[in-house]
Amino acid sequence: MSFLQPSLAVSQSAQNGGISEEEKTTPLFSWSFKETYALLGYERVTKRRDGSSTAADPAEIIFLNTNTPWSAFLCGSQGSGKSYTLSCMLEGCLIPSKKIGKLPKPLTGIVFHYDTHSSNSICEAAWLSSPNIKVNVLVSLSNFHRLKALYSRIPAITVQPLKLRSKHLNVERMRDLMAFGPAERPPLYMQVLYGILREIAIQRPGGFDLADFSERVAQKEFTKDQQIPLALRLELLTGFMDKDPKKPAYDLFSPEPGTLTVVDLTDPFVDAGTACTMFDICLALFLENNNGAGLVVALDEAHKARPLKRHLCMQYMNNNPAAARFTDNLITTIRVQRHVASRIIIATQEPDIDPKLMDLCSMTIIHRFTSPAWYEVLRQHIAGLSKIAGNTKEETIAMFQEIVELNVGESLLFSPSAMLRVKDGVVQKLGFNFIRFKTRPRLTADGGRSVQAIRE
């Protein structure tokens, strides 16, 4: 049974074919504006900038505009429905189902996942695996067998080691893998490696060759004290390299539209900096090989975040150069999302990430949480929230109470450029207002249900 009601009318501007560029690129819209793309959920109540509210139209359903680049920030406590909403957004971008809308050209999905607490966890987004979505999970070689066994609970899923080839590397990425940082004072052996990379950059402008690099390193003389840390650096590099000389059947970083690739680097032997560096390299490779098909990139379970300096520093992203680079490249990707055909989703429990990420997002979806500290962070970076709840103490308490009392799957949706109303034939932006929102039912299996002592 379809979740849609195709009998509802579209806006006067859409009927006349006079849709403006602004209307085409809005991240969210309702039945009263368009009739295509992916159903995301249903409106409950709309809040206005003066604090008043209007009852929701029971027929007013909200669509995600999968035809244009956008970015989304999702936050909320565990069990509030945050990851569920993320999965629904991914479904809308990947599944061409008439049950939820119209998707002539599915996007390519990428999800980054890392868990510092347990090497026995899996990425919830992998449960999108179904006849409609092929899911491929890329994992570290040292945790391949454990994660393959865990992911095997999901039907029709593929698990492969994450392996880079020489063509995937360049001098800049080699610098990252060898853990060079602008603020560091590298030891002598690192300066030697840096010199080798400079030589390669000058002599081989066409690309990077790992065999050539290894040969040049072998020709250098290092002291016994230098050989041990050098061996560790090189072991890290070779651990993610494909040593098979045969060309693979397909490129891991050129997935087909309508598929989902999960990069899961959960591994007791993969440290924080390595995870950040590999995510950064993978993101760059996926963007390079996009070929205009369109990408939706999700940062899953980013609640292991802590604000160190000005960078997004998840718990596994301690204050290191790799964390800073990955954060800055995410910010750059959001800034140029229109030019690289990308949609970025950041899902987190705690909203204390780099403020620029929150400031740049097209939409913010706030699920239930009970932390006053989180609320204060959000007030500083969401225009609609600061406008409504920033005048008096009573308004602030009332707004926080509304968040605390949200039901599972409900959220407050902020998106200034969203077009959810048509008045006298003129499309109205959401602006400083927001809506109380209910995420639609999923099409695929829900792998994020709470584990209870007594199971039903």
Biggest sheet record: 15 strands, mixed
**What are the low-pLDDT stretches, counting only 5+ consecutive residues below 50?**
5-18, 305-318
Q: What is the helix content?
A: 25-40%
Backbone CA Rg = 23 Å
CATH H-level homologous superfamily name of the largest domain: P-loop containing nucleotide triphosphate hydrolases
Please state roughly what percent of the residues sit in beta strands, choosing from under 5%, 5-15%, 15-25%, 25-35%, 35-45% or over 45%. Answer: 15-25%
Can you identify the CATH class of the largest domain? Answer: Alpha Beta
Q: Just name the CATH architecture of the largest domain.
A: 3-Layer(aba) Sandwich
Strand segment count: 19
How many helical stretches? 15
Mean pLDDT: 81
Give an account of the 3D structure:
This protein is of the alpha/beta class. It folds into two domains: 12-162 and 252-439, P-loop containing nucleotide triphosphate hydrolases (Rossmann fold); 166-239. It is 32% helix and 21% strand. It has 15 helices and 19 strands. It has helices at 12-15, 21-24, 82-94, 144-151, 171-177, 188-203, 210-218, 224-239, 272-288, 321-335, 337-340, 355-360, 372-381, 383-389, 393-404; strands spanning 28-30, 37-47, 53-55, 61-64, 71-75, 101-102, 108-113, 134-139, 157-161, 259-264, 295-299, 305-308, 311-314, 342-348, 363-366, 410-414, 419-423, 426-429, 434-439. A hairpin with a 2-residue loop joins β17 (419-423) and β18 (426-429). α9 runs parallel beside α10 (321-335) and α13 (372-381) crosses α14. The longest helix is centred in the middle third of the chain and has 17 residues, at 272-288. It is elongated. Residues 5-18 and 305-318 have low confidence and may be disordered.
